[in-house]
Design a protein that fits this description.
The complex is a heterodimer of chains A (about 200) and B (about 300).
Chain A lengths: L1 H19 L9 E2 L10 E4 L4 E3 L7 E7 L6 H17 L5 E7 L7 H9 L5 E5 L2 H10 L4 E3 L10 E3 L3 E4 L5 E5 L5 H18 L1
Parallel strand pairs in A: 4-5, 5-6
Antiparallel strand pairs in A: 1-10, 2-3, 2-6, 4-9, 7-8, 9-10
Helix pairs in contact in A: 2-5
Chain B lengths: L5 H13 L6 H20 L8 H19 L1 H8 L1 H21 L3 H7 L2 H13 L1 H10 L4 H13 L2 H9 L1 H22 L13 H10 L1 H12 L8 H5 L7 H42 L11
Helix pairs in contact in B: 2-3, 2-6, 3-4, 3-5, 4-5, 5-11, 5-15, 9-11, 10-11, 12-15, 13-15
Classes of the chains: A alpha+beta (about 200), B mainly alpha (about 300).
């Protein structure tokens, strides 16, 4: 029965998505309000503390799956987010970028710490065991897979390139993908930060 | 025997693959109920009316296929690889419902149901004016094929597809709508009866519709199979299970939307032509007073 009501809700929402396409207040990136569950996780941060969503309430949280050996997508995305945050959030401390490693074997707490430090003070490295990581990727319907190691034991990890953005109450609001321009991301992020500023 | 035996390991892997990825009690209950009612129904009906082994196999294969693509790890793969998603929809919208419709299971299922459920629930529901009105509304020569092709088109719209893959409720709406519409369409199309015997549409119009529905599906499939850009970036956004070029994934998915789907419609047309010819022969035989399979008991 519960499932049935959720289906009805989704149908109504689908109608909403369609009508929102022509709405004047459309976001420039992907609006995922009510489609994606609230922020929730239990991982350890890059200082070794156990943290969860409640530790980031009051901040706009940007969650991104990455690994430190990643050669292109991860550093590019993170550098771009760092640049955007420098422009719109300098000194305000309104946002946190939660970098979740999909390669916890190689990305130890110390490795994660020095990796995220390079991007800026708003960046937090998160890691967990396979169970905690799988629960999180499943919750957000993303996946990752470890490639075959080469002769030196190096391997690539295929993973999601999405940045999930949550408002200060932890509700999912936006999704940035590689098809979104830096300008669109900056505009939407600024709007979300100032919007929740007024509400909260 | 030690636990690391390769046989045990592969059995465990198979068991893990067959476990539901996202458990749906509704689907499990429906499939289990259908299997039990079908089995009971077959025991109750007389040997003369009993479904041929071919029909029984078709029913069980169709049902298991639907269960397999919705309630095993296959569903996980479907969420993260476009061409597997297309295979899933081929099973949900074409192959599974096609096999079930071909087996004409409704009478057997009704017989196998507990009497109270049949008269109290199913028959009462079926006699509701709203049910009959809705059924007539959906099951006609215009709405049925438009809905059948329209749903394929709708869920393959880039933007809609993006959200359907990201949201669990929307994903379920997508898959259930494909399954239910597939059942409605193929039950309407593959009805073994003539118009005079109670089918909603005659054989001629059904053959036309089944063939006409190929054209838009070729257009939809070919547009994806021949696309030179990534139409469905949600698989990049959420991550793929295997490393595969996005365009290769997309082209494979397009081919699956295009070719096997069109082939199934051609098979349906052949089946309908054969049934039409047989019903013609029977009617001529009855008209000329010769003995027919149905005349024996009269």
């Amino acid at each position: 029965m519960l499932q049935f009501f959720r289906l009805i809700g989704a149908v109504i929402f689908a109608g909403g998505v369609l009508s929102a396409c022509s709405g004047e207040h459309a976001w420039r990136t992907h609006d995922i309000s009510r489609l994606v569950p609230d922020l929730e996780f239990k991982l350890s941060d890059d200082r070794g503390r156990t943290v969860g969503a409640q530790d980031y309430r009051g901040k706009v949280a940007l969650m991104f799956f990455a690994y430190t050996h990643c050669a292109d997508v991860c550093p590019m995305t993170l550098a771009q987010l760092a640049q955007t945050l420098r422009e719109i959030d300098s000194g305000r401390d309104d946002a946190r970028v939660l970098v979740v490693t999909v390669d916890p074997r190689r990305d130890t707490t110390a490795v994660m710490h020095s990796y995220v430090q390079g991007f800026g003070p708003q960046f937090v490295g998160l890691r967990g065991n396979a169970g905690a990581l799988d629960a999180l990727t499943r919750r957000y319907r993303v996946t990752y897979s470890l490639g075959k190691p080469d002769a030196d034991g190096n391997y690539e990890v295929t993973h999601s390139n999405a940045v999930f953005v949550f408002d200060r109450e932890g509700h999912a609001r936006l999704l940035f993908s590689s098809s979104d321009t830096p300008a669109a991301i900056a505009e939407d992020l600024r709007r979300l930060i100032s919007e929740t500023d007024k509400d909260g | 025997m030690e636990l690391s035996h390769p046989l045990i390991e592969s059995l465990l892997a198979a068991a893990a693959f067959l476990a539901p990825w996202e458990f749906s009690p509704t689907l499990v209950l429906l499939c289990a109920g259908a299997l039990v009612f079908h089995w009971r129904g077959l025991r109750h009906v007389g040997t003369a009316e009993r479904a041929s082994p071919g029909r029984r196999v078709a029913f069980i294969t169709g049902l298991l296929l639907i269960y397999f693509v919705m309630q095993t790890r296959f569903d996980y793969l479907s969420q993260h690889m476009f061409f597997i998603h297309r295979l899933q929809h081929l099973a949900l919208h074409h192959l599974g419902p096609f096999l079930i419709a071909l087996s004409q299971p409704l009478a057997v299922l009704a017989t196998g149901m507990p009497a109270r459920m049949r008269s109290g629930l199913v028959q009462r529901f079926w006699r509701l004016p709203a049910t009959r009105f809705g059924y007539r509304l959906l099951q006609n020569a215009v709405v049925a094929p438009v809905l059948f092709v329209g749903l394929i088109w709708f869920w393959l719209t880039s933007r809609i597809h993006f959200y359907a893959m990201l949201s669990e409720p929307l994903y379920w709406v997508m898959n259930w709508s494909m399954l239910l519409d597939g059942l409605l369409f193929w039950i309407l199309m593959l009805d073994p009866r003539t118009r005079r015997e109670g089918a909603l549409l005659g054989f001629g119009i059904r053959i036309l519709l089944v063939l006409a529905a190929i054209v838009p599906q070729i257009v939809i499939g070919a547009r994806i199979a021949l696309a030179d850009r990534d139409l469905y970036d949600v698989y990049d956004v959420c991550g793929r299970v295997w490393e595969i070029e996005p365009l290769v994934d997309e082209h494979l998915g397009g081919l699956i939307t295009w070719i096997p789907a069109a082939m199934m419609h051609a098979v349906a047309a052949v089946i309908l032509i054969a049934r039409w010819a047989r019903s013609d022969r029977n009617e001529t035989a009855i008209a000329s007073g010769a003995s027919s399979p149905y005349a024996g008991g009269a």
